[in-house]
C-alpha cells in the first residue's frame, strides 16, 4: 500500500514534467505561421489573441480550482460550507463570457469579410483537384499544367534518406507574382479535395461540379508549401501544394517560357 | 389458470449464470452490465485500431500498413469509439443508474431494452467483417462524405446497414430512457429534483430521437445513389455532394453533445460527494444543459467552414458556435463553485472528475478557437482538430465513464476497488493521454493535415511522442480491467452508503443493489 | 376489506403526448426542411421513429394504469385485474387461502407474492418492489387473520 | 391452454398490424409531403425564387459586370469543351447569348450533362439562364463538334459589390446512366 502511494506521488510529478517538457523538448515548429499575406497575418494575430485569452481564462479558472483543492481539502480539517446558489454570481459569469465573445467576434467578422472580397483581382488561377494531383490553369495568361508529388518512392518506403522537403515537393510549382491579388477558382475532377497553403491562409474545398473562390496576395517572394486537407482516398497524404512567389518580372518571363500557343490552349482542363 | 406472471418484466431467470439469462434478460442491471462490458471490449478493439494508426505514424515514411488500410483504420476507429464505446457505455450507465436514481423498479420497456442491446454485437460484427471484404473496409472517413465514400467496394452496403442497426439500438435506448424518466419516477421525485445524470440523459435521449433519423436518411440516400441510380449527392443528376455534409453534421453536431452531456451528469454527481457540499446552481446546470442541446441544432455548419458557404452563413454559424461557450462555461464555474469551501478528499472517482474538468476545458478552449471562422481555415482538417475532439472525448467522455465506474462500482458489485491501484490508473491515464494528444496541437498548428499515413519531417518528434503516449494510455487501461475484475471477485465489502455523504436514492439501496431496485410505493388502501 | 394495488405512474398520458408532440414538431420540421431541398428520404425515418416513440410511451402508460383489486370477505377472496374495467377475476375460498411470499431462486432477486389455495396459485403485485411486496403480504395476512368466519 | 394460444395469436396479429401501419405511414409521408407542399406552396426551387417581375427586366445600362466563363470535365469525361468567349462585360437586366463548343474526341457516341456553378456564391441566384445546354443532356456523336447556346441575364438586384461573376460548367459523362434508363424504359414499355 505504501509503495503504491509513493508510486502515485511520483506519477503526479512525472505528469507535470511531461506536460511542461513536451512543449519544450523538440525544436520543431509548434505554432501557426504568420504567413506572407495581410490576411494570414490577421489570422495569425487573431489566433494568438484567442490563444492568450484562453490561457488567461485557464489561469483564473484553474487557479481558483487548484487553490480550492489545496485549501479546502478535508485533511486540513475544514468544515464544508453549505451554500448552493447565488443568482448574482451566476448572472455575472454568464454575462462576462458573453461580452468577451462579442469582443472576439468583431475582428473575426472583419477578417472574414475581407477573405470573401475577391474584387479588384489581378489574375485568376483555376485549381482542379484530381486523385491525387493538382491541375493549375492561369486563366488570363494561358498557362496550364499538372502538379504532383515529386518525392521518390524510395524515400517513402524508407530505402533512401528522406530529403529536406520530404512529401512537400512537387514536379511543377505554382508560380505567382509577388504583390498581386490572385483569385483562385477551385474545383475538383473526382472527389472532394481541399487546397491549402498555410502561408497564404487559404484553405478551400474542391468540390466536383461546384466552383469555389478564394484569393491571396503574397507580400514576399519565397516558396510556400501546403497539402491537400480533405480526405480524398488512398494517396490523400501524397498530394502537396507548392507555391513559388517570384518578382513580377520573373513571373512574366516564366509565363513567356511556359505559355502554350493559343491554338494549343484549350480552356478546358482535359482529363487524361 | 394457475400461475399468472403478470408484470412482463418479471421473467425469473433459470439460474444466475446461464447463457440464457444474459440472452433473454430484461433486467436493467443485467443489461447495464452487458452494455458496459460490450463498450469495454469495443474500447479495446477500437484502441488497437488507434494503435495501428499511431504505429504507422511513429516515424515518417510508410512502414507497416498500406495507406488504404490506414484510412480504413481511421474510419473504423471513429465509428467503433463513437457508436461502440461512448454511446453504449452511457446507455449502460443509464440502465444501471436511472432506475436506481429515480426510484423505479426497472426500465419502462424492459423487453425493448434487451433488443436494443443485442442488436449491437451483430451490428459491430457486420462492421468488422467488412475489413475482410473485396476492396477492404470503409476508408472514406467516419463522416462518409460522398463521392469518396461511394468509391468503397463491396463493404458499403454492410457498413451502412450496420450503422442503421447502431442507430436503431440507440433510438430504442433513448425511447426507453424517456419513458422511464417520464413515467416511473418515485412519488416526490419531481423533474427539478432529479439528479443531474438523469437530467442530462433525458436531454441526450431527446437529442438522439431528434437526429438519428437524419443520419438514417442520409446514409440510405448514399446507398440509393450508389446502387439505385438516384442523384441526391451527385452533381451530374442535379444533386449536391455538400448537402450530404449538411445532413451529416446536422446529425453529427447534436451527436457530439450526445457523447458529452451524460458526462456532465456524472461529474455533477461526483464532485458534490467528494467536496461534501451540495451541487452549486442545480437549476442553472439544468438550463445550461438545455441551452447546449438547443444550440447544438444550429451550429452544424461550423464543421464545414471551408466548403464554400455564403458569407452570411459563415457568420451565423460562427456566432452561434461561440455562444456555446457561455452555457459550457456556466457548468465549469458551477463545478468549481461546488468545490469552493467544501471539504474535499481525492478518491479515484474524484481524481477522474477533476481530470475531466481540466482537460475537457482544454478541449473547450481549442473549440472556442475553432469557432472563429477565419482562423478555422487554418485549423480545419489538421491535427489541431484531432487534438480538440480527442481532448473532449478521451479525457472528457471516457474519463467521465471511468469516473462513473469507480464511483458506482461498489454499489454494483458490493465490493470496494483498490484505491491505490485506482489512483495509479488515474495518473498513468492522465500522463499518457496528455502525452498523446497535447503534441497534436503543435503538429496541427504547424500544418499537419489529419488522416494522412505519412508526414513531412518537421512533424516527426511530436508524432513520436504521441505514439509513445498512445501505447502507454492503451496499456494503462489493462490495469483498469484487472482492477475491475479484482473488485468484482473480491475486495472489501462496501456499505450501502459507500461514500461518506453521497446524495441520491441509489445510496439508500444495499450494496450490491438488489436485482430489481426500488420502491414504487403502491397505493394500498 | 379491499386492497387496490397499482404500479407507480409519475406523469400522465397527457404529459407523454406533449413530449411526443414536441419531438414530432422538431423532427418533422427538420425532415421537411431537408425534403424542401430534395432530400426526402429522411421523412420516412422520422415517421417510423415517431410512431415507435408513440407506441412505446403508449404501452408504458397502458401498463402503468393496470390495477389489481383484492377484496376479502368471509367467504371469498376476489382478485380483479384490469385497467378501466375488470379483465380477469379470480376467486378463492377465504378459509382455504394463504398468502405466501415465495423466495427467488436467484440471490438478490425479488420473490413472488402469491395467493395459494388448494394447489392453485395467483401472483399479486408483480410490479411491486420487494419492500412493498412484504408490506402488502403483511397487510393481507393480517386481514386474513381478522376475518370472522360465519 | 387454448385460451392462452389464441391470446398469443391475437397479440401477434396486433403487432403485425402495427408493423404494417408503421411502414405504410412512413411510406405515405413522401406523397403526403407533396400534398403539404401543394397546399402551402412552400416548396420552391431556385428558378422560382428569383422569378422576375417586369420591372426587373429593365436594363441597368449604368452598370457593367464582368462575367467569366469556365468549364471543367469530371472524371472520365473526355470531351473538349470551350466557351466561345472567356469573358464578357454585361449590363444587368439584359439578355445575352453566347455559346460553348464541345467536341467528342472519342470513337463512341456519348451523352454529357453540364452542371452549372456560380462564384461568388452570393451571385448564384441572380444569374438567370433563359436558355442553356445544361437544361438537358447533350448527345454528341463520335468525333463531332457542336456549338451549344447559352442565353442568360443578370438580375439587376445583383448586390452592388459584385462586379465579377464566374459561371462554370462541369461536364459529366452520363452515357451509361442514359442507356440504362432507356433500357428500363423500353423494357417497361413492352409490358
Describe the structure.
With 525 residues, chain B is an all-alpha fold. Chain B has 16 helices and no strands. Chain B has helices at 19-24, 28-56, 67-102, 110-129, 155-183, 196-227, 241-258, 261-275, 282-296, 311-323, 325-339, 348-371, 373-379, 383-413, 419-445, 460-489. Chain B starts with 18 loop residues before the first helix and ends in a 36-residue tail after the last helix. Residues 1-14 and 517-525 of chain B have low confidence and may be disordered. Chain C is of the alpha+beta class. Chain C has three helices and seven strands; from the N terminus they run βααββββββα. The radius of gyration of chain C is 23 Å and the shape is rod-shaped. By secondary structure, chain D is α+β, with helices and mostly antiparallel strands. Classes of the chains: A alpha+beta (272), B mainly alpha (525), C alpha+beta (150), D alpha+beta (191). The interface between A and D is medium-sized, with 25 and 29 residues.
Uncertain parts of chain D: 43-49
Largest sheet of chain D: 5 strands, mixed
Specify the structural class of chain C: alpha+beta
What would the principal axes of the Cα set say about the shape of chain C? rod-shaped
- Please give the order of strands in the largest beta sheet of chain D: 3-1-9-5-7
- Supply the CATH architecture of the largest domain in chain C: Roll
What is Rg of chain C? 23 Å
- What portion of residues of chain C is helical? 40-55%
DSSP helix fraction of chain D: 25-40%
Helix and strand sequence of chain C: EHHEEEEEEH
Cα end-to-end separation of chain C:
16 Å
- Please, what is the oligomeric state? heterotetramer
Total strands of chain D: the figure is 9
For the largest interface, the chains and their residue counts are: A-B, 107 and 106 residues
Give average pLDDT of chain D, whole number: 77
Supply the key terms.
heterotetramer, A: five-stranded mixed sheet, five-stranded mixed sheet, 10 strands, disordered C terminus, B: mainly alpha, disordered N terminus
Amino acid at each position: 500500500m505504501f509503495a503504491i502511494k509513493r508510486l502515485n506521488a511520483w506519477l503526479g510529478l512525472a505528469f507535470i514534467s511531461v506536460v511542461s517538457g513536451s512543449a519544450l523538448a523538440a525544436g520543431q515548429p509548434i505554432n501557426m505561421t504568420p504567413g506572407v499575406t495581410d490576411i494570414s497575418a490577421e489570422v495569425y494575430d487573431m489566433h494568438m489573441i484567442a490563444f492568450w485569452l484562453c490561457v488567461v481564462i485557464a489561469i483564473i479558472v484553474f487557479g481558483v480550482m487548484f487553490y480550492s483543492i489545496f485549501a479546502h481539502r478535508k485533511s486540513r480539517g475544514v468544515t464544508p460550507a453549505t451554500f448552493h446558489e447565488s443568482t448574482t454570481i451566476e448572472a455575472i459569469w454568464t454575462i462576462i463570457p458573453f461580452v468577451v465573445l462579442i469582443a472576439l467576434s468583431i475582428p473575426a467578422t472583419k477578417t472574414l469579410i475581407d477573405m470573401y472580397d475577391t474584387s479588384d483581382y489581378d489574375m485568376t488561377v483555376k485549381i482542379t483537384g484530381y486523385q491525387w494531383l493538382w491541375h493549375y490553369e492561369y486563366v488570363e495568361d494561358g498557362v496550364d499544367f499538372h502538379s504532383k508529388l515529386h518525392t521518390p518512392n524510395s524515400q517513402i518506403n524508407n530505402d533512401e534518406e528522406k530529403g529536406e522537403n520530404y512529401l512537400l515537393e512537387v514536379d511543377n510549382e505554382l508560380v505567382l507574382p509577388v504583390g498581386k491579388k490572385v483569385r483562385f477558382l477551385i474545383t475538383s475532377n473526382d472527389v472532394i479535395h481541399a487546397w491549402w497553403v498555410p502561408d497564404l491562409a487559404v484553405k478551400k474545398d474542391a468540390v466536383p461540379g461546384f466552383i469555389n473562390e478564394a484569393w491571396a496576395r503574397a507580400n514576399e517572394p519565397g516558396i510556400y508549401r501546403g497539402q491537400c486537407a480533405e480526405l480524398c482516398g488512398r494517396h490523400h497524404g501524397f498530394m502537396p501544394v507548392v507555391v513559388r512567389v517570384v518578382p513580377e518580372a520573373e513571373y512574366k518571363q516564366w509565363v513567356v517560357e511556359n505559355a502554350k500557343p493559343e491554338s494549343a490552349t484549350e480552356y478546358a482542363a482535359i482529363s487524361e | 389458470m394457475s400461475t399468472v406472471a403478470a408484470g412482463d418484466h418479471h421473467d425469473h431467470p433459470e439460474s444466475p449464470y446461464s447463457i440464457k439469462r444474459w440472452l433473454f434478460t430484461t433486467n436493467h442491471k443485467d443489461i447495464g452490465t452487458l452494455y458496459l462490458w460490450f463498450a469495454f471490449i469495443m474500447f479495446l478493439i477500437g484502441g488497437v485500431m488507434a494503435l495501428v494508426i499511431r504505429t504507422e505514424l511513429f516515424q515518417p515514411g510508410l512502414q507497416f500498413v498500406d495507406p488504404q488500410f490506414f484510412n480504413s483504420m481511421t474510419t473504423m476507429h471513429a465509428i467503433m469509439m463513437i457508436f461502440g464505446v461512448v454511446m453504449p457505455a452511457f446507455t449502460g450507465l443509464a440502465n444501471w443508474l436511472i432506475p436506481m436514481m429515480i426510484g423505479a423498479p426497472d426500465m419502462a420497456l424492459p423487453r425493448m431494452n434487451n433488443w436494443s442491446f443485442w442488436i449491437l454485437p451483430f451490428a459491430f460484427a457486420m462492421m468488422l467483417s467488412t475489413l475482410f471484404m473485396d476492396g477492404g473496409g470503409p476508408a472514406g472517413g467516419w463522416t462518409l462524405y460522398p463521392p469518396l465514400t461511394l468509391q468503397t467496394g463491396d463493404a458499403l452496403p454492410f457498413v451502412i446497414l450496420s450503422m442503421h442497426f447502431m442507430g436503431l439500438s440507440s433510438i430504442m435506448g433513448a425511447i426507453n430512457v424517456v419513458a422511464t424518466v417520464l413515467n416511473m419516477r418515485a412519488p416526490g421525485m419531481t423533474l427539478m429534483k432529479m439528479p443531474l445524470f438523469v437530467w442530462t440523459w433525458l436531454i441526450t435521449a431527446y437529442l438522439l430521437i431528434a437526429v438519428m433519423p437524419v443520419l438514417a436518411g442520409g446514409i440510405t440516400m448514399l446507398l440509393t445513389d450508389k446502387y439505385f441510380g438516384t442523384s441526391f449527392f451527385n452533381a451530374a443528376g442535379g444533386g449536391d455532394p455538400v448537402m450530404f455534409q449538411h445532413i451529416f453534421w446536422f446529425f453529427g453536431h447534436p451527436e457530439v453533445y450526445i457523447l458529452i452531456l451524460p458526462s456532465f451528469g456524472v461529474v455533477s454527481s461526483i464532485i458534490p460527494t467528494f467536496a461534501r457540499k451540495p451541487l452549486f446552481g442545480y437549476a442553472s446546470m439544468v438550463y445550461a444543459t438545455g441551452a447546449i442541446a438547443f444550440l447544438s441544432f444550429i451550429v452544424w455548419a461550423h464543421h464545414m467552414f471551408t466548403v464554400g458557404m455564403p458569407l452570411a452563413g459563415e457568420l451565423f454559424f460562427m456566432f452561434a458556435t461561440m455562444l456555446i461557450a457561455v452555457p459550457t462555461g456556466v457548468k465549469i464555474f458551477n463545478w468549481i463553485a461546488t468545490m469552493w469551501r467544501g471539504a474535499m478528499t481525492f478518491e479515484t472517482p474524484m481524481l477522474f472528475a477533476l481530470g475531466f474538468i481540466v482537460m475537457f476545458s482544454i478541449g473547450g478552449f481549442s473549440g472556442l478557437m475553432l469557432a472563429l471562422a477565419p482562423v478555422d481555415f487554418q485549423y480545419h482538417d489538421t491535427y489541431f482538430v484531432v487534438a480538440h475532439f480527442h481532448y473532449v472525448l478521451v479525457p472528457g467522455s471516457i474519463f467521465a465513464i471511468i469516473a462513473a465506474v469507480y464511483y458506482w462500482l461498489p454499489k454494483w458489485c458490493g465490493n470496494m476497488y483498490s484505491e491505490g491501484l485506482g489512483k495509479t490508473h488515474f495518473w498513468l491515464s492522465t500522463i499518457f493521454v496528455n502525452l498523446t494528444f497535447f503534441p497534436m496541437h503543435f503538429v496541427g498548428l504547424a500544418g499537419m493535415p489529419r488522416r494522412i499515413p505519412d508526414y513531412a519531417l518537421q512533424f516527426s518528434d511530436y508524432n513520436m511522442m504521441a505514439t509513445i503516449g498512445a501505447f502507454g494510455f492503451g496499456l494503462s487501461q489493462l490495469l483498469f480491467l484487472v482492477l475491475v475484475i479484482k473488485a468484482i471477485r473480491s475486495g472489501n465489502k462496501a456499505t450501502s452508503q459507500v461514500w461518506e455523504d453521497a446524495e441520491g436514492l441509489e445510496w439508500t439501496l444495499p450494496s450490491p443493489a438488489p436485482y430489481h431496485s426500488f420502491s414504487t410505493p403502491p397505493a394500498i388502501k | 376489506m379491499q386492497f387496490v394495488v397499482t404500479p407507480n405512474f409519475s406523469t400522465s398520458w397527457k404529459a407523454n403526448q406533449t413530449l411526443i408532440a414536441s419531438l414530432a414538431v422538431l423532427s418533422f420540421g427538420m425532415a421537411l426542411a431537408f425534403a424542401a431541398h430534395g432530400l426526402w428520404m429522411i421523412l420516412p425515418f422520422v415517421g417510423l421513429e415517431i410512431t415507435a416513440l408513440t407506441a412505446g410511451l403508449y404501452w408504458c402508460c397502458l401498463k402503468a394504469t393496470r390495477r389489481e383489486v383484492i377484496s376479502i370477505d368471509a367467504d371469498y377472496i376476489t382478485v380483479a385485474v384490469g385497467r378501466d374495467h375488470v379483465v380477469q377475476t379470480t376467486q378463492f375460498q377465504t378459509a382455504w387461502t394463504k398468502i405466501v411470499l415465495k423466495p427467488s431462486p436467484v440471490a438478490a432477486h425479488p420473490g413472488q407474492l402469491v395467493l395459494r389455495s388448494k394447489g392453485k396459485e395467483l401472483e399479486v403485485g408483480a410490479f411491486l418492489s420487494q419492500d412493498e411486496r412484504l408490506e402488502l403480504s403483511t397487510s393481507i395476512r393480517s386481514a386474513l387473520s381478522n376475518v370472522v368466519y360465519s | 391452454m387454448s385460451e392462452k394460444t389464441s391470446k398469443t395469436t391475437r397479440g401477434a396479429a396486433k403487432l403485425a398490424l402495427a408493423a404494417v401501419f408503421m411502414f405504410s405511414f412512413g411510406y405515405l409521408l413522401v406523397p403526403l409531403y407533396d400534398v403539404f407542399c401543394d397546399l402551402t406552396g412552400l416548396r420552391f426551387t431556385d428558378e422560382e425564387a428569383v422569378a422576375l417581375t417586369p420591372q426587373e427586366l429593365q436594363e441597368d445600362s449604368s452598370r457593367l459586370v464582368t462575367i467569366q466563363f469556365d468549364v471543367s470535365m469530371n472524371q472520365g469525361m473526355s470531351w473538349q469543351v470551350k466557351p466561345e468567349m472567356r469573358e464578357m462585360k454585361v449590363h444587368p437586366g439584359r439578355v445575352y447569348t453566347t455559346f460553348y463548343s464541345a467536341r467528342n474526341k472519342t470513337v463512341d457516341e456519348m451523352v454529357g450533362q453540364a452542371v452549372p456553378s456560380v462564384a461568388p456564391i452570393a451571385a448564384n441566384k441572380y444569374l438567370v439562364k433563359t436558355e442553356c445546354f445544361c437544361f438537358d443532356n447533350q448527345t454528341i456523336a463520335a468525333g463531332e463538334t457542336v456549338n451549344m447556346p447559352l442565353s442568360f441575364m443578370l438580375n439587376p438586384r445583383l448586390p452592388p459589390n459584385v462586379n465579377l461573376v464566374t459561371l462554370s460548367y462541369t461536364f459529366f459523362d452520363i452515357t451509361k446512366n442514359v442507356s440504362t434508363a432507356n433500357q428500363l424504359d423500353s423494357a417497361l414499355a413492352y409490358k
